[in-house]
Amino acid sequence: MYAAFEAKQAINAELVRYAQNKVASVRKLKRTSLPIPHAGGTFPPKLLIPILGGILAFESDWSPALGQPLADALAAADDDGVLDFGCVAAHGYFFRDQQSGTIETHIAGKPATGFLFRLISQLQFSGTVPMIDVQAYARWLTI
After folding, report:
1. In the chain, where are the structural domains located?
2. Predicted TM-score of the model (pTM)
């Protein structure tokens, strides 16, 4: 899994908190990675990448849409609930700098496109997904 996003009509403190809780619950799930067979042998299991989390909305209940109330709501998350990306299509987008942890906001024309390019750019560093242990999931069928 690369990312988990919550999509809502509008963004506000309650919905940011909801998205943070949802992303935290996804990040806490057990994940698997198996060795990767290939023609010349086997590669070791790929290390699991951090799951990106975010929120998507058309509008914002705040004015300004990506101002201090959003920054305060984003800062209230624990480590598992941190939102890395967000887009308010009518106003702009934000992302968390992976090195510094600071939130950068971009308010400009075509925010959804800017957000998409930023997300794709981040995902390029993730490479190929790990090989999933399908049998670990199949065991849940017999419970």
Report:
1. 3-28+44-142
2. 0.85
